[in-house]
Amino acid sequence: MCDTMVALPPVTLSGAVIFAKNSDRERNEGQPFAAFPRAAHAAGSRLRCTYIDIPQVAETHATLLSRPFWCWGAEIGANEHGVVIGNEAMVATIAPGTEKKLIGMDLVRLGLERAATAAGAVEVITRLLEAHGQGGPCGHLHEHFYDNGFIIADRREAYVLETIGQFWAVERVSGFRALSNAFSIGRGAIWRAGGGLLEHARAAGFCSSLEDLDVAASYLSLERDAVSQGRAPCSRATEVLARNAPRLTTAHLMAALRDHGAAAEADPRWHPAHLQGRSICMHAGEGLRRSQSTASMVSELRGDGRVLHWATASSAPCLSIFKPVLPGLVLPEDAARAGESYDATSLWWRHEMLHRAAERGDFAAILADFAPQRDALEADFRARIEAVLAAPLAEQQSVMDACWAEAAALEARATASLPAMPDAAAAHAASWRELDLRAGLPQVCEAA
């Protein structure tokens, strides 16, 4: 379960397009964050996606991807042209495909590799969807099948694309927009559609034309949504963004990704164990609540062509630091390492020591101590990066490297100041201990 947001001028303070996404996945599903170069491909060559082969194109764009370790595709990404895409699992009244085809994460990466604009990415994804279909298991330790929705943006415009099998509908975004795990395109909002959606909707008696088709009302599975609860975080994100429109900034979008909901706002002692249903900053727990926010990214796409990304490369954005990523610069190697087991050389897994200690301890106290330091460091990063945007690449690289190193140092100090993880018997802590042992987390395994 995930949340994606976008804000366009005139509701942004800088006049830029601002995109943000939390990737929600299972707890031990490490998510590497890495850059992939532009590449040329031989005529007639084939591309292996997560499950199937498709024809390769002559040239693919350079990309920046945050992806589950086991998957070819990506949850969040950007390309060298300033196109950004995030996907959302969707639950329809029509059962999702179980046959292995393209999955939503493949479509994110394919759109980024093959399109130079947001509109172009919509075209790439919808053509591939019609040609190859979507389907197959999308979970790590648990079987999970779903259709997909996307927010696709560049420095000029943004789109919401919602799909059911090979059906698809697109809405052009104005102002700001949030998307979660529920169909959301309403009556009168469809810009384009295809894959047989209109024909199916007419035959089902949902509409007579695209103008009166309500995708959300016609195709959302209320039964499955009662479990995934996709509408509530989308509504909450809309509410949170509205508080600062029309002066939205990257800091506001980061704060939105860290939101735990109204109950947490009202309770200074809030703990993830208290979570009822879904929150934007998602924390896993006992029972069916297997997902958590495993990676986050915010992108500022400026009208002058400059692009600036901010990534956590770690889970739990509330306990993570957004670090700057300038296109064309080299990312730290430890950001690209993340599997399903603890790895001391992985940024993602080192951060889990802080995150999981907070989950099993005094979360409110740990967050209250960490958050002011986190916010101050991020504000400093924004000022320093802004000062070198016109500087030579070597100077930009030096400043970016320093920011990542300082973020790692703060997280290391915060982790070192915490007591050993308690072996609590409470259901929330117990649900974490099982996964910690499976991942080989040092403190837990040593105490076992």
Plain-language structure description:
The chain is an alpha+beta fold. Helices cover 34% and strands 20% of the residues. It contains 13 helices and 18 strands. The strands form four sheets. Strands 3-8-9-10-11-12-13-15 form an eight-stranded antiparallel β-sheet, with helices on one face. The protein has a six-stranded antiparallel β-sheet with strand order 14-1-2-16-17-18. α1 packs across α2, α9 packs parallel to α11 and α10 packs antiparallel against α11. The longest helix is centred in the C-terminal third of the chain and has 26 residues, at 363-388.
**Gross morphology:** globular
| Count of distinct strands | 18
Percent helix range? 25-40%
Q: Which structural category fits the helices and strands? A: alpha+beta
Task: Tell me about the largest β-sheet.
Answer: 8 strands, antiparallel
* Fraction of residues in β-strands: 15-25%
